[in-house]
Specification:
Strand content: 15-25%
Largest sheet: 3 strands, antiparallel
CATH architecture: 2-Layer Sandwich
CATH class: Alpha Beta
Shape: globular
Helix content: 25-40%
Number of domains: 1
CATH topology: Nucleotidyltransferase, domain 5
Number of strands: 5
Strand order of the largest sheet: 1-2-3
Distance between the termini: 28 Å
Radius of gyration: 17 Å
């Protein structure tokens, strides 16, 4: 499994789109305060199965809860989780727990600053394209609802998750 975190907020994000030369596109946004939700997610590149978890903050506790959710999805297998080097992935509080569950889960770390090696980054790109880029909303609850609708169809092994996680971008 490849894991990564992302945030979901009630603010509009401007992505590429057609507009008149010299004029930045504007997104009308009625917003009282900035709200944010942290998303943890992982993808199995062989099956395309995507597992997501929402929390108020990204920290050691929310990361551990996410790991337990993933382990429950694979009750008969040891999970090898490939992830980046976010500080709380290396937290001292996590080490005894990981030692206790070493028969169920093992963390493998990517080199620093290498998002192009993590297929979950492409899943987040797709999510932002579908529910946040160039779209205004009134509340974070609306955006979370859009997220749930999008990802409910991706939980089971599927072609879209497999294709996105195996997408190779040619930069040359």
């Amino acid at each position: 499994m490849f894991e990564d975190e992302a945030s979901l907020s009630n603010t509009a994000t401007v992505s590429y789109k057609w507009s008149e030369k010299g004029h930045q596109p504007k997104i009308e946004q009625q917003q009282n305060k900035r709200e944010r939700c942290t998303l943890s997610g992982c993808v199995d590149p062989y099956t395309g199965k995507i597992i997501t978890f929402k929390s108020k903050k990204g920290n050691t506790l929310s990361f551990f809860r996410f790991l337990m959710v993933v382990c429950m999805q694979y009750p008969d297998n040891k999970v090898y989780m490939v992830l980046d080097n976010v500080r709380y992935h290396h937290a001292k509080r996590l080490k005894p727990i990981l030692e206790r569950y070493k028969h169920r889960i093992e963390l493998l770390f990517l080199p620093a600053y290498s998002p192009d090696l993590n297929p979950m980054e492409r899943i987040w790109w797709y999510m932002r394209k579908k529910i946040s880029h160039n779209r205004g909303i009134k509340s974070l609850d609306e955006r979370i609802n859009d997220f749930d609708v999008l990802f409910n169809c991706l939980v089971q092994p599927n072609e879209l998750g497999r294709n996105l996680s195996n997408l190779i971008v040619n930069l040359y």
